């Protein structure tokens, strides 16, 4: 079911996609590069959607990432056979990829492009809804996109900072466009990284608390003032050191949505601990 | 007021007897009880852990495929099962369509397999979705322990443990979906994980499909049948009528065309009684129990 040249709205995107995929399945006249571009677009959209889930699916993400790599490799080989490189001159950054609207922001492509690629590019200049909904992404964009997505899938098990974190210019902006936060110093960067890396943690905050001996949580609390006979109301409930490092999380409420689960876990833990503290302090 | 005893329907409440927690970082896809009835294993996307039933706070990690750099991750574990008789042997399947058989006696961490089962790709069936549909959703040993059966998106395969380079049998579950892969990818159905089961004598295998259909394949006669688990189409105690999906051309009466299949009605879970011809089929939120015609 092809578009009829109507102006496409964002809400029509899903309808369009369903129409496109059935066009893919049923039509034999769709040229191969177009089919490939369609699949690629679907893959990237899915990866982007999965990134924002509370519990992303590692299995699916890996399968889709592999499909993207396969298409990328194929396009790379084709471009190697062509005299001119594919899409040079585009700033490689997952930033621009991640922020691109699914309605299809077309990247500026240079004019001197091989015939095969120009088929895709030229079509875009025509008011064709299929082309307008396709996202033509450069090689580097895809590589850095896949890298950032797979890095996000990692889970930091140790307390120590992850060894595979290599902050480069490309990988730094892991957050989607709507955060608008600037991570200024290293400590904040690390906190940000831990937010991102926690995105695949199974959110089982309740069992976490159940299995921890309650004593362990309060190990570091100085309870000496409560042991003495006279009543000395504390100015502030003493907080264990581990909580202090989680304070920055509270101050970045609009942190990366893929780490929303992490923040929710932290917040649940903090609010439950607050509750317990209130009971202890009797306030 | 004096309390009155009121008869009520039986209520079943499930309560956990033991909780084995905090050993898995990723989504758990399988558990399998060992033939020693003392241990069992649980598998997630990247790791497999061995547990003792009596010890809930500790497990042994026996498989770990997590790469040092997550960017290098290209394959995950999808299912795992212990051998029915040899308590040191187990298999696990992957998202790339491969099966590894491991022996726990060789080393504590079974990262190196004893056997590696993989079928070479059929170039004529190659598509953008080839890898996705090759991902194995279930792996089951035969009761005899001589074969393993795997389920991927479109087929069920039977492998002989002594032959690693290809399956000995391949059964098409719903090959008519091969031309719909893009649509099925778009609506995520392509990621559905179907299970597969053996009957007690390992002569028949069964797996689910869409539209509340499930399929049975007789390995000896090579005959297969499609049946439906739904209340609308069968009365209790009535014999199930075989179904047919019309692929193209003229649709006969009682046949269903591919385009009218309901992909929200999927049968992912089925079970076969270990010795009787009684099967259980889970269709969305209904459980069906079917048995052989009683004469």
Task: Give a structural overview.
Chain B: InterPro entries: PP2A_PR55, PP2A_PR55_CS, WD40/YVTN_repeat-like_dom_sf, WD40_repeat_dom_sf, WD40_rpt. Chain B: GO terms for molecular function: protein phosphatase regulator activity. Chain B: Belongs to the phosphatase 2A regulatory subunit B family. Chain B: It comes from Pluvianellus socialis. Chain B: One of its GO terms (cellular component) is protein phosphatase type 2A complex. The complex is a heterodimer of chains A (283) and B (295). By secondary structure, chain A is mainly α. Chain A has a domain at 19-78. In chain A, 54% of the residues lie in helices and 0% in strands. In chain A, α1 (13-26) crosses α2 and α2 packs antiparallel against α3. The longest helix of chain A is centred in the first third of the chain and has 24 residues, at 58-81. The radius of gyration of chain A is 25 Å and the shape is elongated. Chain B is mainly β. Chain B has helices at residues 130-134, 181-186; strands at residues 28-33, 39-44, 47-52, 55-64, 77-82, 89-94, 99-103, 115-117, 138-141, 147-151, 155-160, 169-172, 196-198, 204-208, 213-218, 224-228, 244-246, 255-257, 269-272, 278-283, 286-291. In chain B, the strands form 6 sheets. Chain B has a 4-stranded antiparallel β-sheet, with no helix packed on it. Chain B has a 4-stranded antiparallel β-sheet with strand order 5-6-7-8, with no helix packed on it. The mean pLDDT of chain B is 94.
């Amino acid at each position: 079911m092809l578009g009829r040249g109507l102006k496409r709205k964002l809400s029509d995107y899903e309808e369009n996609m369903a129409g496109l995929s059935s066009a893919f399945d049923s039509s034999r006249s769709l040229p191969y590069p177009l089919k490939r571009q369609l699949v690629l677009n679907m893959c990237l959209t899915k990866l982007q959607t999965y990134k924002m889930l509370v519990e992303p699916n590692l299995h699916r993400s890996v399968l889709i990432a592999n499909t993207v790599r396969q298409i990328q490799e194929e396009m790379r080989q084709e471009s190697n056979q062509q005299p001119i490189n594919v899409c040079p001159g585009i700033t490689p950054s997952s930033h621009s990829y991640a922020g691109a609207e699914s309605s299809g922001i077309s990247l500026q492509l240079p004019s001197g492009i091989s015939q095969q690629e120009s088929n895709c590019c030229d079509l875009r200049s025509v008011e064709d809804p299929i082309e307008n909904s396709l996202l033509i992404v450069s090689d580097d964009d895809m590589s850095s996109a896949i890298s950032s997505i797979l890095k996000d899938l990692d889970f930091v098990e140790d307390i120590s900072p992850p060894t595979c974190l290599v902050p480069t210019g490309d990988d730094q902006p892991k957050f989607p466009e709507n955060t608008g936060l600037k991570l200024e110093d290293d400590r904040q960067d690390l906190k940000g990284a831990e937010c991102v890396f926690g995105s695949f943690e199974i959110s089982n905050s309740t069992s976490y608390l159940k299995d921890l001996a309650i004593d362990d949580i309060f190990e570091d609390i100085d309870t000496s003032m409560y042991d003495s006979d006279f009543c000395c109301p504390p100015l502030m409930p003493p907080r264990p050191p581990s909580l202090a490092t989680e304070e920055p999380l509270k101050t970045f409420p609009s942190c990366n949505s893929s780490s929303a689960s992490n923040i929710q876990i932290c917040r649940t833990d903090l609010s439950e601990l607050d509750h317990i503290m209130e009971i202890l302090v009797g306030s | 007021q004096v309390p009155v005893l009121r008869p009520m329907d039986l209520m079943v409440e499930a309560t956990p007897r033991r909780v084995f927690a905090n050993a898995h970082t990723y989504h758990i896809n399988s558990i399998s009880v060992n033939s020693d009835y003392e241990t069992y294993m649980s598998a997630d996307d990247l790791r497999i852990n061995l547990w003792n039933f009596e010890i809930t706070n500790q497990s042994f990690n026996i498989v770990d495929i997590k790469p040092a750099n997550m960017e290098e991750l290209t394959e995950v574990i999808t299912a795992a099962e212990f051998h029915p008789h040899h308590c040191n042997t187990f298999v696990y399947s992957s998202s790339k369509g491969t099966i590894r058989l491991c022996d726990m006696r060789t080393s504590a961490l079974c990262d190196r397999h004893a056997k590696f089962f993989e079928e070479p790709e059929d170039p004529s069936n190659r598509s953008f979705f080839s890898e996705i549909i090759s991902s194995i959703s279930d792996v089951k040993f035969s009761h005899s322990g001589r074969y393993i059966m795997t389920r991927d998106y479109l087929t069920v395969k039977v492998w002989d443990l002594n032959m690693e380079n290809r399956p000995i049998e391949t059964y098409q579950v719903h090959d008519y979906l091969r031309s719909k892969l893009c649509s099925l990818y778009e609506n995520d159905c392509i990621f559905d994980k179907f299970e597969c089961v053996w009957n007690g004598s390992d002569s028949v295998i069964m797996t689910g499909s869409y539209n509340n259909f499930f399929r049975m394949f007789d390995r000896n006669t090579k005959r297969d049948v499609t049946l439906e688990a739904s209340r609308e189409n069968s009365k209790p105690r009535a014999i199930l009528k075989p179904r047919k999906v019309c692929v193209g051309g003229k649709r006969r009466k009682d046949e269903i065309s591919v385009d009218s299949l309901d992909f929200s009605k999927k049968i992912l879970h089925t079970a076969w009684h270990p010795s009787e011809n009684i099967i259980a089929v889970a269709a969305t939120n209904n459980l069906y129990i079917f048995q052989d015609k009683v004469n």
